[in-house]
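User: My instructor asked us to take a sequence, write out its structure as tokens, and then describe one feature of it. I'm not sure where to start. Here is the sequence I was given:
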Amino acid sequence: MAAATEAFSRRLSAAVRGLSGAWYGRHMAAADRAIRSRLPFVDLVLEVRDARKWMAYMKQTSCSCVALNSHSREGIKELLNAVRAKIREIKLGESNCTGTVLLVGIPNVGKSAIVNAMHRIGRIGAAEKGKLKHAIVSSHPGETKDISGYKVASHPNIYVLDTPGVLSPVFFNDESGPLLALTGATKDSMMQEFEIAQFLLAILNSRETYKKWENMNQAGDMSSFSHAMSSSSHHNKRQYASDHTQDFVVKAVRQVLFDSISSFKGYLENENELKSLIECQFIALQEAFRVSADLSEDVRKLVATKLLNLYRTGRLGRYTLDCAPDVRKEIVS
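Assistant: Let's start with the prediction itself. The structure tokens for your sequence are:
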């Protein structure tokens, strides 16, 4: 992490320390106890991680792992097949056995979305379709309150227990808190969304992932934000300019970030110059998100919330926040 970016991380880390473990409230402690109490009664534990580039490293461990996107049918099928195979192995090849899988992970990592995807693809009986319930999926952490069971496969019968997300009451190091806040594992209401968004922009500015956006508006795509706004009247009626998840708004946001980073002539290692760039980006993002030009704190919060949502849902691209260890060095040692 660049020195100037670390300055933003340190400020956010101080805010996290000031919470004194407030994210680990009674509900999370209760969820922790409930998960531990069920461990002796399940056949398999499935941990959901935001691994991305970590796959090469994870495959060197003793744990089986599957890379997937909960919106990818093929990825979910691969996961279901892996779970079926593991359950059959545990049950010594019985085809009509019943297996129970405990799904665990930190808050907002996508457990409920995976359960629903497994449920949609894995169920086989038409008569069951109206009876099997779905897990509640939300972009906010802590929406799963209780442990709930969902049937996801037959022959063998497999039930998945969706659990509330659990964090440690104390983070391993000062870097963990800001990164978890950025991913949405802790509630934004505990900190200032603007500070979290500043940290996000500091990371985006210090890396070269934005260069992948250079040609995004070519080949028939819209060439600029102004063109996006002028042509918005031709879009389907379901597309609302105030909806920041619309494709043309996302493209405008990417364009703003690309233009601001690529045209920046300052020194990103300098904290003050990086802060100046971020301030300019917030002003430009207000226009991209079609938010009032008023620079009040509420407007900054609104822009920050929209930007964080696009990042967390993957609309800004794929970013690995941690540096994966060199697998070759791990093997040698």
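For the description part of your assignment, you could build on this observation: Residues 31 and 164 are 6 Å apart (CA to CA). Try explaining in your own words what that tells you about the chain.
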